[in-house]
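Table S2 (continued). Query chain:
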Amino acid sequence: MTAPLVTCITTVSAITLSEDFSLGDVVENVKELGSWINSWLPKNIVVRTMFYGATTVVCLRFIPVFLRRTSFFKNVEIQSRYFHRSTALPELIRIKEDLLKELKDESHELPANEEGKLTLLELNAGGGTNMSYYPDGCVYIATDHWDGAKDYLEQNFCDISEPRITLDRFLLTKPDRLISIPDNTVSAVICFHSLCSSCNVYFTLLEILRVLKPGGKMYFIEHVMTKERYTNYWLLQMNYVLQMTFWDCSLRDIGSQINRAGFSKVNMSEVKLNFKGVGMMGPMRSLAPHIYGYAVK
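Corresponding output:
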């Protein structure tokens, strides 16, 4: 066992990184740093064990930081972007249909503009995959912080000879930065997998309340932190919380913030999505706990 290990270390140490610098130099520097830290630590074995244990955990947790540009993490990034903007899982499609069906059957009682048309604001709209649920003649404002979304959205409108809805504008911005939208001008806000990417969820909700007309609604579908501690979902979320931040996605208790934001009425339900058989990669499986519903200004 010792001989192969020595051979391996000798081989690695011989790798040259540059003309005046080899991997062996790195190994020696790390050894010197380790010796210095070891001499600095107290002699108490408990303290040393706790220090080395904590250091190991921190180093392991930051491995994704150094690997985030690898093909695996790039694939997870693409899957995350698709999941957040398409909401295309069968369970999510059924929830969307149930939430937004009132927009087309005109049972919504939402405030319209001066021309009698609804003004809809969609956060993190992507390419506009939810437009099929919107009523004919509505005015559509789309936002997204992903700079590739505008091209996809405009292409979708170009591919339709006579669009049913009017694209008023596209805003390249995060959900909590709606400063270019005037107060009390929006009939409804569609907020599907958007609050997780905002810098401040509560401030985003206040912005949504500001732009909504009195009586307007926010329709939401959001993944959330599970309320059940020490379960499989909780362990998954604790394990992947750092990785998800690389893709502008934070695991938060969004439900409680919606309840205290100041809406006159909140209708909210909870569900755990079934990711079995859909090919979700490791970090994405932590997004199963969801809330959905609507909130009225």
